[in-house]
């Protein structure tokens, strides 16, 4: 039966089932090796000296006393990293500029945020390394700093980069500012659209920057040989990207650097760039020893990318019956210390779920004295869509319409021209709304001080370059190798697709993640791409194995290869005209591999196109304690289109994880800065992420509207689940309180303030 | 001839044109012709963009065909988290 027939009939053997993940035992027994778990003979400890200032010019760095300390093997500063010309390249998850990247890993002229790396040491022990850091003397000229996005945009704000002039405005300004770029998209005539509206709403929102909050801190081990060749072990979402970045920054040939991705304890976009890795390589090169570097949680908070905080203005106009006639937004996103916030996708996604004729979105990319932002699930989209969803909810309330009905009236469908340009292919947004409307959760009764919120969300999903190799072992088992680190269970889904294609049992397929020396380039694990793109590579590789198997069977039977077919794990003659032969299993053919031409293998290298977007709708119930301001999430349901769930449990896990992170973003998470520009809550006790006891069981419903560009219909599912969460929670809190809040997080102090405002108004 | 839709900064670089016709049979040709016609647009095209042909979004898909009646949108390069 062909894959298309299986898809139509739903008769898969492995796809859509829920086997235990291949890496599961090692993960629960502690055998799995993460970034900090590698130990090499003679290995040194690397530590980073970080800026205590939010903004300062570096006048001098004296490392002589540190270098003289017994046990110190190497010290590096800005002088050990070459100057990089400004070169903006598409790499990792967002555009990067190598000039900025080299300054982010090691400050040059100025430190631009509290925690910015200034120097690093490699020493025989952690205690010697710590002592050495204290002996490094850095002379600073402290400069005024700016943290908030609005403050950073004001005339007269401290300027971070004297050579930065706003791009995207005409004429180009002749004075530098913190506004790196302005961009704009839209179509139609928003003014005319608003004239057709019976009701117009506009609101301004503020969101806090939030960290990806991966449980495993950044860690790596570098070992540079005297011949210039190097090995690197690190916790990353993409070891090929690490290789590319490090080779570029350090002037190495790519082939001289072999990178192995360790197991990864979460990334969510935050492990798509480099921080420690180039530093560890230079330290190892200077020290002639392997060097391990592991960040503390404090370092992760102070020096690695959160996503943007933002200020968002939204204006919506609609007719009395709920048809949106025009939509406009202005997004101001923090980029951190260097340009490159996700404001672009924020603009594109803001109104993407809706079919609106007249749209205009303006975005500003703004630098300030905070860590450079990094990608975080659906970068940019949760912020803009949160604001839009809150206004959509208010629109429904003002018009006396059910919020799901209002969305259905305006929902994007196949053929709808997206606000960002092209027309959608087959999408499942309406299906998620219909499912939400008929879900028992949506009509369950609520108690006092409780409120229900609904919100929807969109994300593009991407494809990209992936390699896969399947080697058939002598006993007929299969070794599957891919180059995309397994974060969310992808080894399981890759093995399931390989087993499905080959027609063999799943336990005969052993999936591994290859290092950069073992497999060709594979883009990183991100953009919700792995099950789609690497999955396509696995399917192509399996097809090549089957071609090889048919050829071997043809040789064994001495008949033309066209007279051999592969069905359910066996080679068979296509008809009795080809001859009477007993079917040959994969194991039968593998046992005769040496006699028929040698080892059997299939390889694929592809640039997967045709990723299809994801849409989701969330329902959440909350209860607000009006004495303390605490918001308790009582019930949560995620409904999302997965195209086709290869392993439904891991799809559900993505849905639940996205919702959990969104709840944290909505209710508690924020960076607290002192007047000195230093972050004050650099640990999980004070940076309040939700833990299991804060959350109800998050229910899920998988919708399957197949992506026609994948053999099984797969869409990416990793990012969309975060997008609707903040809007849904915000609407629920607002309905519980009877008033609207315009700032995240809706932490107890902000809720109490809102309640106070109600009291005053009522009085 | 395929119709190319521009918005935002690319629209500005094309002298404010929202729609232009470009003789191109694949994405590589499209990018080359646009770069020749609008030299200021070239750095943006070289930096890496996404091209949507009849709703299908391609990244680095130089050889993807464009039909004479295709609708093409140029988008910023897409990533993820």
Could you describe the 3D structure shown?
The complex is a heterodimer of chains A (763) and B (81). Chain A is of the alpha+beta class and 763 residues long. Chain A folds into 3 domains: 3-32 and 463-608, Aldehyde oxidase/xanthine dehydrogenase, molybdopterin binding domain (Aldehyde Oxidoreductase, domain 4, 2-Layer Sandwich), CATH 3.30.365; 35-142 and 221-303, Aldehyde Oxidoreductase, domain 3 (Alpha-Beta Complex); 428-458 and 613-763, Aldehyde oxidase/xanthine dehydrogenase, molybdopterin binding domain (Aldehyde Oxidoreductase, domain 4), CATH 3.30.365.10. Helices cover 28% and strands 25% of the residues of chain A. Chain A has a 7-stranded mixed beta sheet, sandwiched between helices. A 5-stranded mixed beta sheet of chain A has the order 9-17-16-15-10. In chain A, a hairpin with a 5-residue loop joins β19 (464-472) and β20. Chain A is globular. In chain A, 57% of the residues are buried. By secondary structure, chain B is of the alpha+beta class. Chain B has a single domain (3-76), classed as Roll (Ubiquitin-like (UB roll)). Helix content of chain B is 28%, strand content 26%. Chain B has a 5-stranded mixed beta sheet with strand order 2-1-5-3-4. In chain B, β3 (49-53) and β4 form a beta hairpin. At the A-B interface, β4, β9 and α11 of A face α1, β4 and β5 of B.
Radius of gyration of chain A: 27 Å
CATH topology of the largest domain in chain A: Aldehyde Oxidoreductase, domain 3
Reading off the top of the CATH hierarchy, the class of the largest domain in chain A is best stated as Alpha Beta
Strand arrangement across the biggest beta sheet of chain B:
2-1-5-3-4
- Percent helix range of chain B: 25-40%
N-to-C span of chain A: 73 Å
Largest interface: A-B, 52 and 28 residues
Q: Quote the average pLDDT of chain A.
A: 96
């Amino acid at each position: 039966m062909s894959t298309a027939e299986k898809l139509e009939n739903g008769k898969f053997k492995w796809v859509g089932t829920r086997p235990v993940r291949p890496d599961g035992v090692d993960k629960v027994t502690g055998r799995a090796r993460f970034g900090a778990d590698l130990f090499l003979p003679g290995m040194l400890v690397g530590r980073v000296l970080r800026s205590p200032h939010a903004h300062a010019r570096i006048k001098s760095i004296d490392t002589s006393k540190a270098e003289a300390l017994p046990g110190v093997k190497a010290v590096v500063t800005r002088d050990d990293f070459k100057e990089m010309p400004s070169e903006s390249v598409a790499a990792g998850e967002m555009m990067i500029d190598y000039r900025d990247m080299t300054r982010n890993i090691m400050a040059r002229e100025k430190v631009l945020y509290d925690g910015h790396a200034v120097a690093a040491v490699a020493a025989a022990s952690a205690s010697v390394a710590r002592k050495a850091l204290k002996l490094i003397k850095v002379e600073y000229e402290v400069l005024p700093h700016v943290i908030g996005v609005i403050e950073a945009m004001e005339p007269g704000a401290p300027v971070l980069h004297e050579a930065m002039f706003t791009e995207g405005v005409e004429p180009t300004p002749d004075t530098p500012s913190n506004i790196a770029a302005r961009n704009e998209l839209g179509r139609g005539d928003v003014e005319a659209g608003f004239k057709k509206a019976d009701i117009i709403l506009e609101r301004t929102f503020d969101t806090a920057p939030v960290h990806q909050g991966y449980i495993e801190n950044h860690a790596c081990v570098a070992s540079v040989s005297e011949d210039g060749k190097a090995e690197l072990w690190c916790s990353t979402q993409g070891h090929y990207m690490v290789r590319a970045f490090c080779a570029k920054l350090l002037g190495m040939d790519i082939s001289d650097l072999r990178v192995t991705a360790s197991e990864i304890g979460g990334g969510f976009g935050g492990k798509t760039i480099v921080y420690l890795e180039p530093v560890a390589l230079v330290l190892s090169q200077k020290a002639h020893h392997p060097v391990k570097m592991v960040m503390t949680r404090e370092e992760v908070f102070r020096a690695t990318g959160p996503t943007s905080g933002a200020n968002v203005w939204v204006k919506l106009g609609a007719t009395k019956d709920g048809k949106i006639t025009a939509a406009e937004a202005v997004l101001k996103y923090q980029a951190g210390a260097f340009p490159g916030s996700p404001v672009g996708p924020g603009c594109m996604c803001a109104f993407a779920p809706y079919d609106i004729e007249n749209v205009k979105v303006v975005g500003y990319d703004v630098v300030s004295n905070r860590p450079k932002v990094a990608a975080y699930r659906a970068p940019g989209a949760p912020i803009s869509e949160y604001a839009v969803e809150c206004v959509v909810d208010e629109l429904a309330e003002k018009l006396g319409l059910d919020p799901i009905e209002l969305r259905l009236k305006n929902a994007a469908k196949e053929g709808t021209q997206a606000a960002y340009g092209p027309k959608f292919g087959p999408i499942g947004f309406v299906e998620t709304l219909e499912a939400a409307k008929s879900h028992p959760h949506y009509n369950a009764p609520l108690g006092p001080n409780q409120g229900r919120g609904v919100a929807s969300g969109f994300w593009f999903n991407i494809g990209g370059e992936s390699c896969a190799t399947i080697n058939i072992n002598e006993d007929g088992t299969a070794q599957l190798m891919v180059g995309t680190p397994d974060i969310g269970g992808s080894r399981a889904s890759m093995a399931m697709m390989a087993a499905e294609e080959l027609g063999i049992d799943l336990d005969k397929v052993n999936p591994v993640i290859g290092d950069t020396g073992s497999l060709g380039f594979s883009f990183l694990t991100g953009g919700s791409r792995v099950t789609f793109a690497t999955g396509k590579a696995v399917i192509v590789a399996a097809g090549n194995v089957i071609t090889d198997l048919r050829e071997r069977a043809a040789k064994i039977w001495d008949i033309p290869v066209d007279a051999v077919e592969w069905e359910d794990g066996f080679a068979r003659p296509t008809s009795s005209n080809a001859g009477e032969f007993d079917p040959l299993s994969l194991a039968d053919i593998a046992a005769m591999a040496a006699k028929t031409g040698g080892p059997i293998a299939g390889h694929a290298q592809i640039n997967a196109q045709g990723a299809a977007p994801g849409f989701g709708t969330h329902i959440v119930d909350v209860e607000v304690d009006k004495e303390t301001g605490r918001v308790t999430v009582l019930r949560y349901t995620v409904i999302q289109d997965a195209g086709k769930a290869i392993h439904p449990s891991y799809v559900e896990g993505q849905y639940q994880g996205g919702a959990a992170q969104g709840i944290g973003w909505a209710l508690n998470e924020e960076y607290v800065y002192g007047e000195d520009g230093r972050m004050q809550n650099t640990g999980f006790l004070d940076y309040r992420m939700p833990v299991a006891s804060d959350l109800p069981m998050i229910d899920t419903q998988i919708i399957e509207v197949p992506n026609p560009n994948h053999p099984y219909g797969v869409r990416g599912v990793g990012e969309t689940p975060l997008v609707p969460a903040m809007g849904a929670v915000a609407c629920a809190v607002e309905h519980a309180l009877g008033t609207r809040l315009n700032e995240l997080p809706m932490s107890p102090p902000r809720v109490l303030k809102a309640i106070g405002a109600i009291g005053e108004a009522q009085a | 001839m395929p119709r190319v839709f521009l918005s935002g900064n690319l629209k500005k670089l094309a002298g404010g044109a929202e729609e232009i016709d470009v003789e191109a049979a694949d994405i590589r040709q499209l990018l080359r012709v646009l770069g020749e016609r609008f030299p200021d647009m070239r750095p943006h095209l070289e930096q890496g963009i996404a091209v949507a042909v009849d709703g299908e979004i391609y990244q680095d898909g130089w050889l993807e065909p464009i039909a004479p009646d295709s609708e093409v949108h140029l988008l910023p390069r897409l990533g993820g988290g």
